Amino acid sequence: MSKVSDSEKHAIAIDSRKLIPAELNYDIHDKALLGIVWSFLLSLSSPFEVLTYHSSLQYFMSSKVLTCGQAHWAEFLSEFCFSITYCPCRLATFPDALTRPEDVYTERGENFINKNPMNSQQLIKQDEVQHSRYFAVKVESFSNLIDSIQKALWHYPQYRSILQELGKGKSIQDYSLDSSSQFLLFKDWVVVPNYPTIQLRILQKHHDSPLAGHPGQEKTLKLVKRDIYWSGITQFIKDYVSSCQQCSRNKNIHHKKFGILKPLPIPNVPWICLSMDFITQLPLSNSFDSILVILNSILSDRGPLFVFSFWTNLCQKLKISRDLSTAYHPETDGQKEMVNQILEQYFWMYVSYNQDDWNTWFPLAEFAYNNSDHSSTKQSLFFTAYGRDIQFESAHITQDTPSGKLSIKIQSVQQDVKRELEVAINQFKRYADKGRASPPVFNPGDMVWLSSKNIKSTRPTKKLSERWLGPFTILKKVSTHAYHLKLPSQWKSIHPVFHISLLEPVKTSTIPNWHQEPPPPIIIEEEEEWEVSQILDSKLKRGKLWYLVEWKGFSQDPERSTWEPAKNLKNCPELVKDFHSLYPDKPGPNSSKA
């Protein structure tokens, strides 16, 4: 409260109170209005002027839109004679100081008045300091870096002469000495000599530091050029950032995927090339749990069933050439992958709720697939192989065709199919190559990054793991689209041949004396598997079937034989069958308690 005396306002009374919890929820407008209402509750009766820093309160008494609470206050205030005048915050110094009396804020008064004279809010309370954890990063002092720059400048004649001239008070265009630190400036930048050691220290501060965060080329350049300049700075930073292994390992690649589509050759007649794959992990159906898919050298993926030594020896005996697709590149045989999907979709439609009868639907699924027209050939497989479609109704079966004419017709059909396949493949290749780039050519000895997309490591989450692993050395060029890499000896379960789309060239740096720290080893997620030599015994334990297993390589050490549950021997059914053939009375899968 103030009173005018000698044409000036003088404070004559000061009072305040603490807001109750409900009032703390008021918005700023209503809190300021509450102060006016409360002041009238002090039984002030003389006409007076109210000063407020909330400008909208000037028009409160004439406002037509009010809340219930505001309407109640307006009715109360109408009994008094007063005026409301707006006072800018910059002039309301005394009320701001008086809103924090120590006796009201008993718990925080010490912090507000004594220990925090600037009235700023503390992020960490004093009693929490000893329990707090602080994150610190090691950053080179800029002053130390500047000292090194100044000393290095005197070793370069062109800069030495500039420093000498400026020291004598002479002026040189675009060059000057900082008035306080005596740094040599080019325009507004600190001049750095062409000294790689100092330039590397600058980049480590402005790119590698956690305070910088490994930005890209343009952002790093702008960050450095805020304070520093040297001749050729743009090319140096471009070389540094493009060769940074941390960036290469952890950043996504934005160019098109390497490797234009390279279709497999089209055979002249059926059954020359077979594409094979297994659909596994199906529920048991009449003792079956997998499907071998054969499409028409044998091409397969690198599943364990196809790299098994038995399969290798069988192909050698029968003089069958095998072509295994590259690791993690199912596009090598997209037709086979599509057939797998069609078969699975067929079973989804017709199998029972318990999914234990899919094997009974298999002949019909095969018939439906072979009798449907294909988008590539515009004909069914039956028509391609036999020269006619198979009809559902016997009444529509045509008369027999003489063998000579049928042979000619089949040959004609197969030639038509080949032409249709060529058109379809070329069309598919044209669309596929729009999102692909011509692959770079690597040679043995080159270093490449390997995509981590298909490799599971032991790190907790893939979201925060490296995008690229390596770098790895190329040992052999398998084809224009596949390369053999030198992988760590611990990665025994990963085939070392990879498609070009999973590789990225390592950019080498021309910066001298730049040695980057090697990455920590990546431990991949794999299960160690031991090979069973033979089964020695079986037993039932708590209703579960167990086998006594002799491990390969430990036949001379009986103590190494272990009891294993039957589920652990699912990969060696032949040994289980041989054991029960020799010992039919021993507990087996069909035992009543098993």
Automatic annotation (TrEMBL):
One Gene Ontology term of the biological-process aspect is:
chromatin remodeling
Against SUPFAM superfamilies, the record matches this protein to: Chromo domain-like, DNA/RNA polymerases, Ribonuclease H-like
- Write down the PROSITE patterns for this protein, in alphabetical order: CHROMO_2 (PS50013), INTEGRASE (PS50994)
Q: Where is the Integrase catalytic domain?
A: 297-389
Keyword set, alphabetical order: Aspartyl protease, DNA integration, DNA recombination, DNA-binding, DNA-directed DNA polymerase, Endonuclease, Hydrolase, Magnesium, Metal-binding, Nuclease, Nucleotidyltransferase, Protease, RNA-binding, RNA-directed DNA polymerase, Transferase
**Record has Nuclease as a keyword:** yes
Q: Give the signal peptide as a residue range, or say none if absent.
A: none
GO MF annotations, alphabetized? aspartic-type endopeptidase activity; DNA binding; DNA-directed DNA polymerase activity; endonuclease activity; metal ion binding; RNA binding; RNA-directed DNA polymerase activity
InterPro entries the record matches: Chromo-like_dom_sf (IPR016197), Chromo/chromo_shadow_dom (IPR000953), Chromo_domain (IPR023780), DNA/RNA_pol_sf (IPR043502), Integrase_cat-core (IPR001584), Integrase_H2C2 (IPR041588), Retrovirus_Pol_polyprotein (IPR050951), RNaseH-like_sf (IPR012337)
Where does the record place the Chromo domain? 530-591
Which Pfam families does its entry note?
Chromo, Integrase_H2C2, RT_RNaseH, SH3_Tf2-1
CDD domains in UniProt: CD_CSD (cd00024), RNase_HI_RT_Ty3 (cd09274)
Q: Which GO terms describe its cellular component?
A: nucleus
Q: Read off the PANTHER family from this record.
A: INTEGRASE CATALYTIC DOMAIN-CONTAINING PROTEIN, PROTEIN CBG26694
Name this protein carries in UniProt: Chromo domain-containing protein
At the highest ranks, the source species' classification is: Eukaryota, Fungi, Dikarya, Basidiomycota, Pucciniomycotina
